[in-house]
Amino acid sequence: MNLPNYITLSRIASIPLLMWMLRTQHLSSVHGQRELLTSLLFIAASLTDTFDGYLARRRGQITTLGMLLDPLADKLMIAAAFIALVQFNPRVVPAWIAVVIVGREFLVSGLRSIAANEGFTIEASDLGKFKTCVQMVSVVAVILDHKWMYWNITANFILPIDVIAHLSIWFMVAVSVVSAVDYFAAFWSRIDRSAAKRRRRAFVLSRRRKNDVAAT
Question: d(Cα 10, Cα 16) in Å, to the nearest integer?
Answer without folding.
Answer: 11
